Amino acid sequence: GRVKMSAEEILVCAVKLGKNSCLYFDEFCCIFPAELECDALCKEMTLHRVLRNVNSQLLVVRPDLNMAAFEDVTDQEMQSGKGMLFSMHCYKTTTPLAGMPVAFSVQVEDKSYYMCCERECGETIVRFKEGEVPKEIPGESNIIFFKKTFTSSCSKAFKFEYSMERGMFLAFEEEGYLRKLILKRLSKDEVDETMKMSL
Q1: Which of the ends of the chain has fewer CB neighbours closer than 10 A, N or C?
Q2: What gap in Å lies between CA 65 and CA 61, rounded to an integer?
Q3: What Gene Ontology cellular component terms go with this record (predicted)?
């Protein structure tokens, strides 16, 4: 609610006390996040978005095939529960320069899956596992990506850096007719369109 004080309006926010007495703002109340110090990552809001690549294709998760790929989807086909509408969970950070820490989950039929990365045969693979994203993450996590603007001149598009392997970003790779979601290293000063995503 609002509190009137000598003709000035002050916005009062709901706050929650998480586990470990970690204070964070409820949902979309993140007006003064810099004043809240917290070592663990605490979820502060969730946005519902589709992820589009540079070809305007939508990211679709298919757990039965253990895969996610960018596909041509019409607006009519875009439905919650079909593996296209992502929840982007934004966490509070004390190091904003790295980018906003986010985790992704998606509904497929009546199950929730979260995006994570795992080492397999010497390379890091993007996986979707059944389960919910935690409200708090102590320290490092293989589900956290740093959301950054794609380039300084292109602030409406983003790239997502894997928090546990800096320099590795979500991207797509053409495999036959598929554009599969992968992690890819960005070489310095390069602009890689396969990493460009709009929300």
Answers
A1: N
A2: 9
A3: cytoplasm; extracellular space
